[in-house]
């Protein structure tokens, strides 16, 4: 396949008159400038999560998107998996009654964390909540859509990644909402490299006044164990000989292609911008709120006390 242009300068690419849409899939801390440039041109965007790694930058990008009326969505891939769509539909249609509590637990092996800290321009902006917990947080807030968060309480630990890379192992906390609903949230990305989930292993329970819905998204239903290290998946490591297939968001290889939720997310975005159909993509405003919530968890853990939500960008 021949390309019309190959360039190492993203500005040159986005300035071309025939470009009408763009996927911004740079490292997390490099989303801001391309997103601002694309919004100024009015290009439809799909931006990888998070919208930015600094809250003030996220607010700046959101403001420019809203000022220009740009159709911009953010890559929260879990929304394109059947189980989460089914859960959202049951909540949306009232099958559980009024939702009163959501519990969420996320476990990840430390390959993700070590890579995130290695790539970061500023390690102070990297945390398990901002970089990876954001996916599970988006699901929790999506399921609790319409409820107003009021306060966040959280604690973090750094026993493993602290000595290695001055990083955070994991964070756990509680969100309280204006109507009395609560969200219990915890995640760690410091599990041993041998932990079989390539990226995400997630358990969620949604409790309502007239029902409960539990989702086992740990991927333990398809387990691959081999004598030799595999060459596919997230940052393969020779110590990993067991894998939960399906836990890598880009998908699993079959017949030379990746099949998974990112494929569905991308194809859905193509339908959105070409056919105008509604999609479950996270909006830029939802992504900014999600970043603010992950930052609130980090801030509450740092301060050792609850913090009111929403938080300011610099306090």
Automatic annotation (TrEMBL):
Q: Where is the Gfo/Idh/MocA-like oxidoreductase N-terminal domain?
A: 8-76
SUPFAM superfamilies given in the database record = Glyceraldehyde-3-phosphate dehydrogenase-like, C-terminal domain, NAD(P)-binding Rossmann-fold domains
Q: Which residues form the GFO/IDH/MocA-like oxidoreductase domain?
A: 85-213
Q: Which UniProt keywords apply?
A: Oxidoreductase
Q: What PANTHER family does this protein's entry cite?
A: BCDNA.GH03377 (PTHR43818)
Name the chain's protein. Answer: Oxidoreductase
Organism from which the protein derives: Roseomonas fluvialis
């Amino acid at each position: 396949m021949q390309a019309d242009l190959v360039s190492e300068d993203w500005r040159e690419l986005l300035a071309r008159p025939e470009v009408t849409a763009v996927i911004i899939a740079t490292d997390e801390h490099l989303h801001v400038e391309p997103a601002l440039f694309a919004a100024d041109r009015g290009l439809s965007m799909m931006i990888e999560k998070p919208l930015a790694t600094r809250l003030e930058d996220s607010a700046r990008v959101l403001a420019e998107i809203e000022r220009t009326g740009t159709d911009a969505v953010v890559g929260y891939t879990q929304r394109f998996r059947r189980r989460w769509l089914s859960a959202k539909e049951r909540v949306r249609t009232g099958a559980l009654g009024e939702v009163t509590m959501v519990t969420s637990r996320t476990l990840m092996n430390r390959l993700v964390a070590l890579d995130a800290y290695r790539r970061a321009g500023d390690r102070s902006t990297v945390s398990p909540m901002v970089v990876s917990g954001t996916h599970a947080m988006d699901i929790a807030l999506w399921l609790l859509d319409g409820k107003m968060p009021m306060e966040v309480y959280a604690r973090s630990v750094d026993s493993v990644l602290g000595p290695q890379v001055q990083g955070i192992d994991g964070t756990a906390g509680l969100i309280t909402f204006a109507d009395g609903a609560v969200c219990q949230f915890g995640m760690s990305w410091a599990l041993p490299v041998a932990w079989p989930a390539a990226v995400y292993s997630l358990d969620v329970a949604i409790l309502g006044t007239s029902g409960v819905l539990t989702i086992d998204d740990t991927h333990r239903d398809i387990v691959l164990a081999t004598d030799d290290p595999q060459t596919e998946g997230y940052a393969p490591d020779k110590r990993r000989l067991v894998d939960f297939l399906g836990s890598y968001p880009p998908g699993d290889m079959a017949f030379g292609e990746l099949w998974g939720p990112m494929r569905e997310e991308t194809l859905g975005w193509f339908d959105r911008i070409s056919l105008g159909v509604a999609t479950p993509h996270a909006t830029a405003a939802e992504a900014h709120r999600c970043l603010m919530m992950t930052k609130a968890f980090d801030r509450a853990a740092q301060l050792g006390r609850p913090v009111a939500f929403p938080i300011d960008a610099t306090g």
